[in-house]
Amino acid sequence: MPAFVYRDFSTLRAALLARRELALIDVREEAEFAESHPLFAVNIPLSKLELEAYRRIPRRSTPVTVYDNGDGRAEQAARRLRQFGYGDVALLTGGLAGWQAGGGELFQDVNTPSKAFGELVESRRHTPSLTAQQVKALIDRHADVVIVDARRFDEYQTMSIPTSTSVPGAELVLRINALAPDPNTQVIVNCAGRTRSIIGTQSLINAGISNPVAALRNGTIGWGLAGFALENQRQRRYTENVDNLAQAQQRARRVADAAGVRRIDRETLGLWQQDAVRTTYLFDVRSPEEYRAGHVSGSCSAPGGQLVQETDHYASVRGARVVLVDDDGVRANMSASWLAQMGWDAAVLDGLEDADFTERGDPAAQLPPPPPADEVTPAQLAALLGQEGTVLLDFTTSANYVARHIPGAHWVLRSQLPLALENLPPAKRYVLTCGSSQLARYAVPEVVALTGKPVQLLAGGTLAWMAENRPLEKGEGRLAAPRIDRYRRPYEGTDNPREAMQAYLDWEFGLVEQLERDATHGFTVL
Fold first, then answer.
1. How many CB atoms lie within 10 A of CB 8?
2. Which among 83, 130, 246, 359 is placed 20 to 30 Å from 60, CA to CA?
């Protein structure tokens, strides 16, 4: 295999400023990535590279640059990406330290471009907001107010503002008239922190709705810091009824046009998808349930509010084209208006009919060829676990492992495999699993190479074990590696320290200044 190629900070900065396509990949685990990274770096951990590369970087000739913090994972990732068929793979000169040494700004947390953009929107538009105390007073006196939660429904269920209704961000302009038909009703938009409430509030303002609109300042974090109680497991969701669809369509189209969103038809989309030198993402921004019931062939599900919030996760090639699809003429236009302001080449696919939404379910993921493995059934594994020297390794996420795992299983992190193996009891044989055993299969040859012992794979993974109603355990009893596979967000859950929540807000407030120092973002605000 050819020697490694290197790209330095100045080369990548020039490409960002020129809006040329690039994928800057941080191959560390998410908790490590959240500590420090370039603005437009995307996190694809080495441990999950096989599962995510083709979806997130669909064009194999994309210029890909990978980095770590000097521990050798970037070199491993570069080799694998070449094996997967990527032809233009380079290492970042000096890794993360090289970026900083070259004068590059480093950012914290995850989904940072979207969060920084949200802060820029508020600073430029002076997006109205109300404090937790002001909103609590409105609730207490039963004022004419509608509170809408712009997060995913599962996030809303975890913790929510009293009386609020789940309306994920892309749904707001489409659904608000049914929720607040009286133009005098105060509408309040909240999320866990700041970004989605700012974007949601500004979406309604940009669309020109008649109601007074404000964000709940600092979201559920601000609510908790004020000492107010949050609800959980609430089921209030927006109604499927849409009032005055034609008006919502006109409003959304006007906003999209003002943002410079392009309009394309199926023929143009086909030409773009055949383009060998540009990447084109096709996202369906409706709800996951609508997507599974019927979608345009070749599209990926990316609910609009989350697409704007987590753009780096869905579209990992900066400078690519992003084409959005819906069946109502509202959600795609509103979502595209934000992507265009965030510097993306955004377009909406027009001219669709019901017959275009014919593909059902979730499409199978495209993955690199999996290695062969000697498989065992759940019954055979149960027998092996009764024999001395059998060590079961679970490669699922740490959160899934803590929630439920096969009795006796040890949680391991693939990128930390040599360390994990040192923390395990002596083995005569290893059996590997994860949720479906898809990721575990890719780890089989690595465990063989590191141990020289027989290695088998649980066919169908832990899900197959569960399907036979076999016993499960939960808890952190056998963690063989640090839980760095996921960054614990300070706005998740209800048990975060006050200091962590306040520090998170302080960080968000400083993002606009960081954007100015970085100067590569290309953001505009309507």
1. 16
2. 359
